[in-house]
Write a structure and sequence with these properties.
There is one protein chain. The chain has 175 residues and is α+β, with helices and mostly antiparallel strands. The chain has 2 domains: 27 residues, no CATH class; 140 residues, no CATH class. The protein contains 4 helices and 9 strands. The strands form 3 sheets. Strands 2-1-3 form a 3-stranded antiparallel β-sheet, covered by helices on one side. Strands 5-4-6 form a 3-stranded antiparallel β-sheet, covered by helices on one side. Strand 1 and strand 2 form a beta hairpin.
């Protein structure tokens, strides 16, 4: 009987301490992550961020953008505490913008941007292991770009981009 009780405690206690890992249940971190990448177009003077295969193909094969930097990893599917990172396009100024916060989306729509795609999902609050995804803007170039401390932030600051704010939180990029 004592051995049976020890076995039950051996199974029950870890289950109580780590319920997300019990009985093979998927954890939030186990969801598929996509690499958010930045591309640059010399003629348009435009950064384009995407985390989808279709977006990456369009950037390089259709629109002649060149890979710039791996920015972050984002959730490929929605999970609790996340919001969509959405791609907007403004035809008149030839600019892409990937944003997540409702205020910035509303501002872009007022400026003539149109929603084109959902790139993935980012956390609204900082979760374990995540870093801020920051939105920058260059007023002379009329170009938005999102960056992280591990992907593009120093380049943005060195080249005259101004911090607008934090769009959400993401995992550091794979290198």
């Amino acid at each position: 009987m004592k051995n049976n009780s020890k076995f039950q405690l051996f199974v029950v206690i870890p289950t109580l301490l780590m319920p997300a890992f019990s009985f093979g249940q998927p954890t939030e971190v186990a969801k598929p992550l996509s690499q958010l990448k930045s591309y640059w177009h010399d003629t348009r003077i435009d950064f384009f961020e995407t985390a989808t295969d279709m977006g990456q193909h369009a950037a390089t094969e259709v629109f002649s953008y060149h890979f710039s930097v791996d920015i972050a990893q984002i959730n490929a599917t929605p999970i609790p505490q996340t919001i969509p990172l959405e791609l907007f396009w403004n035809e008149s100024i030839q600019d892409n913008a990937s944003v997540a916060t409702p205020e910035v989306k509303e501002q872009l729509i007022k400026q003539g941007y149109e929603l084109k795609a959902t790139e993935g999902y980012i956390f609204t609050q900082q979760a374990k292991g995540t870093i801020p995804l920051k939105l920058f803007y260059h007023p002379q170039l009329k170009d938005y770009r999102v960056v992280t401390e591990h992907g593009g932030e120093s380049d943005a600051r060195e080249n005259g981009y101004q911090l607008i704010g934090i769009e959400g939180y993401v995992y550091p990029p794979r290198h």
